[in-house]
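Good morning N.,

You mentioned wanting to compare the apo and holo forms, so I went ahead and generated the holo version with thiamine diphosphate. This is what I fed in:
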Amino acid sequence: MKEVLSGNEAIARGAWEAGVRYAAAYPGTPSTEILETIGSRYKPDIYSQWSPNEKVALETAVGASMAGVRALAAMKHVGVNVAADPLFTASYTGVRGGLVLVTADDPNLHSSQNEQDNRNYARFAKIPLVEPSDSHEAKEFLKIAFEISEEFDTPVLFRTTTRISHSKSIVELGDRAEKPAPDHLERDVKKFVMLPAYARPKHPRIEERLRKLRAYGATSPLNRIEWGDTSIGIIASGIAYQYAKEAMPNASFLKLGLTYPIPDELVREFASKVDQVVVVEELDPFLEEQVRLLGIEVAHGKDWFPIVGELTPDFVAEKLTGRAAERQPAAQGLPVRPPVLCPGCSHRGVFTVLRKLKVYVSGDIGCYTLGALPPFEALHACLCMGGSITMAHGISKAMGEVTDRKDRTVAVIGDSTFFHS
Ligand SMILES: Cc1ncc(C[n+]2csc(CCOP(=O)(O)OP(=O)(O)O)c2C)c(N)n1
Ligand code: SF4
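and this is what came out, ligand included:
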């Protein structure tokens, strides 16, 4: 049977088909619908719960994996910053049941406080990275990610971007691979207690794991070469692959789904048979650097595709073909509609008073960040979830005893952000 699913719905379906029994998340655009879908469509096969923050979500998933079941944690890109501590050491412990962490990145900051490329976490934590290019791949690749996790004894980072998470495409549905529930709790102190004496020998094993993963990438169903015109060989993954394929359907492609570590032999084979290699990717030169490290010349990469912001099909086509897309110009003179607090929002009264008091307001992340914009203009700082109270503390200590009210600091924070921290 086929269904049209968003990337997030397809990930939820993939978790169900993979036999996942535990899923946890903290919400954040563009990741939220993953757990929403699991909770509404795949109950009771998958136990799912929202966590107070991303660290808790990942830790509970690690626990479920230790108990022997397949477990999934999902979050937006900045959530992985919060979950980084358990992530890096889970790379050392490895897994029992497969463990996949979904990171939904947000190029162009549609709904985020920064624009970070979480592919770098895979290299940093030395774990495999899987990137789908559409909803069907999101489902199928997730199942493979669980197999990789168990075969190589590692958490797997599964990265989407807004265009993959929220675009819809056709997905061929499959059955659930039921995994039996554990009948006892196994103990393995050397595997799961990361004392220095037990953690130290893990590091060389992780390096060995990466070597094996690199070799596995040559035959993995996640990676493929699509031979075409060999005057140009395009290396791409994720949504960038779709844009490049649409622009140059007849070119040769190395389409990567396992983007860390990249399969060096496959890359060499591909590069040796094309006249020039072009790497198309959003944000950081993540693939380009790995390709260059192999001693392979990259004709074009970040010189064409910027390190900042989101790629568009037109932009990629223009760079690859040298021809500008013909488009109707956008209508001129339309009214600007900046985001505002809802008419009856209870934050409105608070910001009206804070504005009158003229105090310095240390803000946080939520709807109330809009207190920075007209008509209130009564919020003067916002850094990360939970930062308002702590920044206000630093500011007030730095300022000492001030007499002028406008140099006094007030912190504002929402309930979810309060409990998150
Ligand atoms: C580390 C991190 N995780 C998740 C998010 C996404 N996010 C932004 S605000 C928010 C919820 C805020 O809720 P609350 O503090 O109650 O404020 P409200 O918007 O309800 O006023 C979430 C989940 C984020 N920006 N950063
Ligand atoms: S908290 Fe956000 S969603 Fe709720 S009323 Fe205020 S602006 Fe609207």
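The pocket of thiamine diphosphate (ligand 1) is lined by residues 26-28, 76, 78-79, 82, 113, 365-368, 385, 414-417 (CB under 6 Å).

Happy to go through it together on a call whenever suits you.

Best,
F.
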